[in-house]
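Why should sequence recovery work at all? Because a backbone constrains its sequence more than one might expect. Tight turns favour small or flexible residues, buried strands favour hydrophobic ones, and helices have their own preferences. The token representation captures these environments compactly. In the example below, the structure is given first.
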């Protein structure tokens, strides 16, 4: 099972915190960003702008930032987009966790990968919470 952690995204500042998910020490979002073609850098800069807007509680049109949470899902899912670029994240207390980025033409594959990582991360967090509660329970 992969080991998950969170790292603050320093380029995003505001009332909400933005963190990126690390999987075994590597952020899928960083891998995406590092492999971007030069022509897509401008779109990524715009997406960072949108993240800062959201971090400061400003609303954006659905064409830039939207809720993509499936029905009956408890943790909100979000998509930032500009041109062909997509960045996927989830809500957390007082902010967002950015999980990965992708391209419109790979969206179905990216959604599967995004939701798989989300599920694994949330299961790890649930396991940590349950273990912490067990360790605090007094033994008889």
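From this structural description, the recovered sequence reads:
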């Amino acid at each position: 099972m992969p080991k998950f952690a969170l790292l603050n995204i320093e380029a995003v500042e505001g009332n909400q915190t933005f963190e990126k998910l690390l999987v075994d020490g590597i952020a899928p979002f960083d891998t995406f960003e590092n492999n971007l073609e030069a022509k897509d850098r401008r779109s990524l800069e715009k997406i960072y702008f949108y993240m800062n807007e959201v971090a400061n509680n400003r609303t954006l049109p659905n064409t830039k930032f939207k809720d993509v949470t499936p029905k009956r899902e408890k943790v909100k899912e979000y998509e930032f987009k500009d041109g062909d670029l997509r960045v996927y994240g989830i809500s957390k207390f007082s902010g967002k966790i950015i999980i990965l980025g992708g391209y419109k033409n790979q969206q179905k594959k990216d959604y599967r990968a995004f939701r798989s990582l989300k599920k694994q991360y949330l299961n790890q967090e649930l396991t940590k919470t349950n273990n912490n509660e067990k360790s605090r329970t007094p033994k008889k």
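A few observations help interpret the result. The first strand starts at residue 4 and ends at 8.
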